[in-house]
């Protein structure tokens, strides 16, 4: 099939490369000419394991191309996937859907023959119905340009695998355009094995995505709330979480206690979901998400308190090594990253911060240029009064505690992700402190 993918960020670039990999002819569209030049040359403007190779491979086959022309996109595609970002608005928790509106407004006037436009972005419920009308009104082909919603659940770090082997595909189609289901099934027919399909209306499809992220955020904040209680009682949240995980009704995934969730999705999605619920008059139903957010943000402050306490009550003149800046391992994404937020706070309180992250250094430097940046984990630890681990990259886990102890001023470690082997570090002479543990 001839497919376009509008917006070539984490979601769009991955979707475009994967659709080419399963045999479609794909045209990626972006308004940023530098991005188009880079992608055309097979260069990925961010870090995502496996995606760079796939991009090079698929651009070389000629099945994957990029353009900044909506006219070319409209002439080329039978199915247009819209993958632009919906960030948090500057003035409230609501989602900013202006990029989506702009994408539809740019594409629609060029649509002269019947086609399907498929939204994949995470949106406030009701957006798809609104865009369907906007599309049909602005397109010369009128109601021949139909809209469907097909939310994306990929995780950064596993984007290619999640796209090629999704655990489910949700197809939101309107009663006026039931043919959209057949077209989308044809797009995904090459996936092997075929995932379960949930075919539903537009509003349900939009809600599946935000409710999935709200549930995941709630699970993380639940265990982090237990960590707060553990801290007040001397109990151990790691053992508590392990014991809970054996109950198959609860399960152990997304029950990892630590400095909490960040990134370009979970934090802004729970805020946008609450804002939308308020607009719909059901704000009370999602008020618990306010607590989920608050628990999550308190964990960042707790790491700062713990580090301050371990430095004798003040951070002025103290050298602190921060391991990690990305919001999670296998990513260079620092959007709303707990690690970078904590590092900036430590600096603001007078600490001399030396930060190292295997992949996120450039992005971190752009956002927080005032911090010190080291060439590796050991260099960051050089002369440190405390080492704070905030992103659980495997290379930090694998470090030899004795080797790190040899370069620090004081062997004190705050494990903000409950990622290190506590006994090993204590045997190596370290004072070990973690969130939710005695
Ligand atoms: C998330 C959803 O998982 C994905 O389905 C959706 O499409 C986009 O949003 P992503 O943002 O890539 O994906 O990150 P995810 O792997 O979900 O992690 C989110 C955050 O939660 C990270 O900061 C991570 O460190 C944190 N986390 C995760 C925990 O603190 N504890 C856990 O147990 C799991």
Give a written overview of the molecule.
This protein has 438 residues and is an alpha/beta fold. The protein folds into two domains: 2-200, Rossmann fold, CATH 3.40.50.720; 235-438, 3-Layer(aba) Sandwich (Rossmann fold). It contains 18 helices and 14 strands. The strands form three sheets. The protein has a six-stranded parallel β-sheet, with helices on both faces. It has a six-stranded parallel β-sheet with strand order 11-10-9-12-13-14. Strands 7-8 form a two-stranded parallel sheet. It is globular. The structure holds uridine-5'-diphosphate-xylopyranose. Uridine-5'-diphosphate-xylopyranose (UDX) binds next to helix 9.
Compile the SSE list and pairings:
Layout: E1 2-6, H1 10-21, E2 25-29, H2 33-40, H3 51-61, E3 64-67, H4 70-76, E4 79-82, H5 98-107, E5 115-119, H6 127-138, E6 145-149, H7 159-164, E7 169-172, H8 179-188, E8 197-200, H9 202-233, H10 237-245, H11 266-279, H12 288-310, E9 319-323, H13 338-348, E10 352-356, H14 361-367, E11 372-373, H15 377-381, E12 386-389, H16 394-397, H17 401-405, E13 412-415, H18 422-427, E14 431-434
Parallel strand pairs: 1-2, 1-4, 2-3, 4-5, 5-6, 7-8, 9-10, 9-12, 10-11, 12-13, 13-14
The chain binds uridine-5'-diphosphate-xylopyranose (UDX).
